[in-house]
Amino acid sequence: MDRALKAARTSGSLNLSNRSLRDVPDEIYRSLDAVGEGEKWWEAVELQKLILAHNNIELLKEDLRNLPQLVVLNVSNNKLTALPAAIGELSLLKSLDVSCNMIQQIPEEIGSAASLVKFDCSSNQIKELPSSLGRCLDLSELKASNNFITSLPEDLARCSKLTKSLILSRNKIQEWPGPILKSLNNLSCLKLDNNPLRQIPSDGFQAVSMLQILDLSGNPASLCGHPAFSSLPHLQELYLRRVQLHEVPSEILSLQQLRILDLSQNSLQSIPEGFKNLTSLTELGLSDNNISVLPPELGLLEPTIQALRLDGNPLRSIRRPILDRGTKAVLKYLKDKIPEQ
């Protein structure tokens, strides 16, 4: 430990992951005060990066304010139930990871950590995000999956730099967060899978037309309003598992940049011939549906598709030995079935 602290005073970085720590050692909070013999105090640097992941830490003290130069703080996979208000005094903090703890509430003071760019509070017991997050105007990545969140604070709409990802999987969100998404028009990744999400409005995707990744899996009612997938021309990954689809929404077939499409665990009975137009597709998930026949035209995607998942379907048109040989064999078989012009 002493050696790690001494090195940290030279590098500004301290990693004490996987040390079975129950507490944050007091020496960390007063890093520069503990300059020892043989060390040149004038060469010591303040702590900028602190990694305390995968320990048994139950408490972060308000003494955290003694680390004003902190840029990265990772306390994921511990036993924290709360965060200190002093988190808001870390004015240079850019990356905060508190995922996989037992935190019930994020303090409003976090809004004063105005340099925050990445915030991960996934896998906690949080019921709501503080409205003060809307003051973190540099925020580009927010991960809050696997909590008990029912809605998003309206002030989040002020975070116009939230362009990288908004991950809200496995929460209790019922309403499509349209008003907020209208301000996040450069967002590239949105994950709302496994929420009790009600119907997405038909124009729901227009506000986020730059999306590259969208996951709505496990939201059976979400597509009842037939939201227009054609509003998402840049989409590269689309996950629609367990959304009670009986047919493939025709607009999906116009998404020319789509690389990954997962329609597993639905009630699809057929696959439209128009799939041949998805020439960028590398992965197609069709597992656990009611598909009995595949269109031969699917074989035209042979050059690009690396993974075609068909298990759990009552396929009658392709013999088991061919299926067992994998994606390339299936696509070649289908391609050979295309009638000659």
UniProtKB/TrEMBL annotation:
PROSITE patterns: LRR. Transmembrane segments: none annotated. GO terms for cellular component: cytoplasm. SMART domains: LRR_BAC, LRR_TYP. Keywords: Leucine-rich repeat, Repeat. SUPFAM superfamilies: L domain-like. Gene3D superfamilies: Ribonuclease Inhibitor. This is LRR-RLK. The lineage of its organism: Eukaryota, Viridiplantae, Streptophyta, Embryophyta, Tracheophyta.
